[in-house]
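Protocol step 4 of 6: record predicted structures for both targets in the notebook before any analysis. Target 1:
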Amino acid sequence: MNNTKWRLIPYQSHAPAWNMALDEAILTAISENQAPPTLRFYGWNPATLSIGYFQRAEKEVNLERLKELGWGFVRRMTGGRAVLHDSELTYSIIAPETHPSVQGSVSESYRYLSQGLLRGYQNLGIEAELAPPAKSSKGIQSAACFDAPSDYELVVHGRKAAGSAQVRQKGVVLQHGSILLDLDIERLFEVLMFSTEEIRNARKQELEQKAVSIHQCSSQPFYIQEVEHAFTQGMIEGLELDVEVGKLSPYEEEMAHQLVQNKYANDDWNYKR
């Protein structure tokens, strides 16, 4: 049992820059002992394409089409590939590197944190399991995040059910990820760039076979509140967390506003590569 009291920030929908700024502000506050370990659930308004820290926006994303569709766009501080955040529950779990929930290697902490996600799926009556560590694969990967499970990510019948990414900075671990209620591959591929239509179609078919959403796994529809409840309980049970519902401190809010202005709503950051 972890003795630390965790702060739970319940689900709210935010603009893309604010979502990413909040995750970073919480990470910084924790690094300065200004905030407890935090579990946060959130959504995106408008629907948003986020890209990984190392991706090249101009090369991999059709920015014109993105604007036409009215979607948000943001670069994450974590690695990984493009994710369309629309019909999903996003989580972030942020704690000092020394904390039992996240200590050890990236793979070890993924494995541990995935226990909370696993329990969340089980709470919805979906039989998920952890993907075993991957053998090195030389296959071509697309720009889309859900095309292959990483070590210890959640799979249902061999298909990836939740995509997560992790970063470690200032002695703190931040892991955030998407729990898909629905997966609209057509919409995602509308805004990704490929050198030929053949490659686009091949990647699309691969993704259809490799990724799966909650509503594809279950015969009953779920509201976002039901999914949030299932995964809140899942994290509490699976990771043995002692949580207290909380909110951001004025310090974190102020820092998040600065990060929106100087970083996440800023073209220099979002298009920098």
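Target 2:
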Amino acid sequence: MTLTRLIYSSQISDDFEHHDIKKILAIANKRNHQMGISGLLLFDHKYFLQCIEGPRPEVNRLYSRIVTDPRHTDITLLDVSDITNRQFGSWGMGYVPDAKITQKIIFKYSATQSFDPAKMSGSDIIDLLLDLREHIPVIDLREQSETQRQSSTNTPVAPVDATPTTSIGGDTANA
């Protein structure tokens, strides 16, 4: 089976509401796990930058759904590659929220002061995402959802994996 990595960027549309990000992430974590897809989503309140990894047919089906999602516009395919291993296999869809440290790392790879992933090269974007993965706590909603379920029963919860994460609650969808 061939693994594929697909990276795209988009802008939020007028249909996007700020609470949508939690819905997007919750659905993505649930569905992506079922489809064998992993990845990372960066969202800065204007742009989405998403890396999707998994079996080629599933990545293609997911991307077909993404391009019809009315919550974003100006979808730009930045990179598609066959890969031998996953870089973001720890998450159904890891999430990197906008923060000061995020902005510093983005600027390291961006030609401009403002973040516009459509103006970055595919290799710079991959390097950016890998740098973010190494330096920023990535939110893993699967862990949070499990934590919420367990806290409702007052039972201690073991982490999903050893990857440092910060958890938030909710179910997720694909961006």
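Step 5 preliminary note on target 2. Residues 3-134 form a domain with the Alpha-Beta Plaits fold (CATH 3.30.70.100). The CA atoms of residues 1 and 17 lie 37 Å apart.
Proceed to step 6 after PI sign-off.
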